[in-house]
Amino acid sequence: MLLPLTNEPRDYAWGSTTLIAALQGRAPADRPEAEVWFGDHPGDPSITPDARPLDTWLAQEGAAAGVEGSLPYLLKLLAAASPLSIQAHPTRAQAEAGFAREEAAGVGLDAPHRIYRDRNHKPELIVALSDEFHALAGLREPADGARLAEAMGASGLAGRLSAPDASIADVIAWVLSASARDEVRELTRRAAAARSEEFAADFALARALEEQYPGDPGIIVALLMNRITLRRGEGLFVPAGVLHAYLDGLGVEIMAASDNVLRGGLTPKHIDVDELLEVLDARTGRPAALRPRPVAPGVEQYDVPVGDFSLRRVAAEQGAVLPVGGASIVLSTDGEADVTGVRSGGTVRLGPGEAVLVTPDEAEVRVSGDGEVFIAGPGVAEGVGAE
């Protein structure tokens, strides 16, 4: 069965008025459009042609189409005009323990200081649709951070980072502590005023962040992270515990179906420093861009080390035929593509920004046309053939 899906863009303040609109070929929006969710997550489920939320449709009709329970993933269009909050996500074990702890304490699911809103982990993958997509991910090497601190005239911070037993995690704990508030405010001013050939891009980012979040300790946390630039089609996989923030650009994002977020700055929302440090992966190093692997003519797969989701990119002109190993969502990102259920024979034509759910009873789906689509599904998937 093919089930077209729609949803309204979410108007988070960091969203863009132009990126999703341009993708869909319409005029700029009059408010930020940050994310469009495709899935059955109860926070904002997609809408089916008969106006039912997808979670309701699946509960009522999913079993007959071969869908067992909820989708294990959430697919999004993400459009950032300014930085998202710095954040990390827990492992499944940490999420289960944290959820139970907050439930026992009577913390409401909608409480602003609630951290664990479900029992699941939230590994995620972002793939660039814009020519460039900018992000922060992972922690710098301490020596690199010390050179940056010296370049901004912050000898005290440089000393913390160049100590024999230096730990970026310990420095982040100090930056986010209440006792360091005044000193960190001075550091943010120094960072915004600093000039350096080696760290020009870092200090340009600090100036932009200081304008938006004056004195926010997250500015210094951002300088202790790696700047990442993705080219169109490249991905960034973010596992549990890795500190990250998306800065600007348009992308396709897929993640395990969860809403568990530990924040570390650049946000007015609640920050629990102790809990953030509990889940933080303190290893240093620069994450590599993830390039898709060809698996069939016109079909590329993004290999990720989790079983919650898979993501394939398909050039529709190749006429690819792909297996449907579970409930899958096909999202168009360029041109026009016809999606045909091999078993039912039904066809849905997709334009950019449009999506359709393919239920497992189809077994295979054919993609044709002159566009590009991404196919999200559970677990590992492979492209197997072409027309």
UniProtKB/TrEMBL annotation:
GO terms of molecular function: mannose-6-phosphate isomerase activity
Domain Phosphomannose isomerase type I catalytic: 2-140
Transmembrane segments: none
CDD domains per record: cupin_PMI_type_I_N (cd07011)
Matching InterPro entries: Man6P_Isoase-1 (IPR001250), Mannose-6-P_Isomerase (IPR016305), Pmannose_isomerase-type1_CS (IPR018050), PMI_typeI_cat (IPR046457), RmlC-like_jellyroll (IPR014710), RmlC_Cupin_sf (IPR011051)
Key words of the record: Isomerase, Metal-binding, Zinc
Domain of life: Bacteria
Essential cofactor(s): Zn(2+)
Entry's EC annotation: 5.3.1.8
UniProt cross-references to PROSITE patterns, sorted A to Z: PMI_I_1
Catalytic activity: D-mannose 6-phosphate = D-fructose 6-phosphate
UniProt record similarity statement: Belongs to the mannose-6-phosphate isomerase type 1 family.
The protein's name: mannose-6-phosphate isomerase
Annotated gene: manA
